[in-house]
């Protein structure tokens, strides 16, 4: 059943005609997100410019029991902003203003559609630092980052989006607007609703404003790349660095397949004759940075590094970091369908998990490039496949099941940063257990009794 004409009429009354898209060719770009294989046409796409418009859209949708799928830039990797049939896609990219940079309290207030990079740049222009840096930061929105509790390359030392959210303005499914959190460093008044909305994947409310914590900019940074003949040597280097009580801001790895794809794509002069590459960055006080960099280089060499290259200047450091950031795009060029996962294990189990992924690739005759946030235990096994090949897709599914079963067995999690969405929905009950599933469902029922927000996501 298509969206009723009366619904479109009312949405055009709330928002003006040009911010309500209904033509098929206009809807196609909103029929998928960054997740492979998933596609569904929405009923319409609407663009809100302020909180009041979001509130009016939700109030109307709630009264008419129309599904609403909130969307930032659509870069999600678990199908979170995939439309449900005949839904309203509520896109927030026009809510793109940074409202305040408060130097006295080290905070920034932004609308939900501001990109992560704009936030980083605005903080830097004010002499401050916003650390979370998902690989998609050029286009991902802060609303999407909050909804997914996104991580990034600096997660090891600086944490994830949650660690920088001090307050949120949220519109509830019935149109009511609430503020949770404030500029106080300490606040224990009541349950932390702010924390409930972070990572809620658009299922509990629509985030319209975000109050962010900023920190002082690190005074110095050193970037280096080490290559290894065996993945185990890279994994051992990571374990040794952590055991030496060094917390670098970045400890990322690429496997052989990914290194070759990245070099082919980004042409940054990466060494190709190796099985694993570690990107290591340390930042902070200049003397601590120099000491940590020397120690990390020693540990890499002790574990048989083939080469350790220290960036000579900022330009070279940016080039090396960009190589890692382009890993997904580089892999995506070599196969018609790229399915990226984010199995995450305790760091002590990392080497075991990497070996397991390689064995699964062999067993199911699949091509998997693996890269990720090695310091966080967060792996991105990336299946290079073709969705038109039914037999291969079946093997991909079986391989997934084995990888997630092993992840859970090793005490890990089925998603370190991309969320459940629809992609991981079937794995959640096994991971969360009955009691947790019951509480999750009940919380959702309380906040969204008519199930209008992102129905079918996370769980049914
Ligand atoms: C190349 C690439 C690299 C990536 N690298 C990383 C990475 O390093 N780390 C990482 O964590 N992720 C990464 N991602 C995944 C993705 O970019 C993040 O999940 C990001 O936060 C999504 O932001 P978005 O604006 O695109 O949100 P969308 O994809 O539009 O939405 C994501 C989810 O959030 C909900 N949502 C969006 N906005 C709001 C809002 N204002 N209020 C309530 N709910 C909302 C949606 O309904 C959906 O469930 C990467 C993706 C790509 C394509």
Q: Would you give an account of this structure?
A:
By secondary structure, the protein is α+β, with helices and mostly antiparallel strands. It is built from 16 helices and 18 strands. The strands form 4 sheets. A 7-stranded antiparallel sheet has the order 15-12-14-13-17-18-16, with helices on both faces. Strand 8 (165-171) and strand 9 (177-181) form a beta hairpin. The longest helix is centred in the last third of the chain and has 20 residues, at 390-409. The two termini are 21 Å apart. The structure holds flavin-adenine dinucleotide. Residues 33-34, 69-77, 80-81, 92, 112, 134-136, 140-141, 143-145, 147-148, 150-152, 201-202, 206-207, 328-329, 417-418, 454 line the site of flavin-adenine dinucleotide (FAD).
Gist?
The protein has 460 residues and is of the alpha+beta class.
Note the main attributes of this structure.
binds flavin-adenine dinucleotide; five-stranded antiparallel beta sheet; alpha+beta; seven-stranded antiparallel beta sheet; globular; 16 helices
Main β sheet profile: 7 strands, antiparallel
Please, how many helices?
Answer: 16
Q: What oligomeric state is this?
A: single chain
| Attached small molecules | flavin-adenine dinucleotide
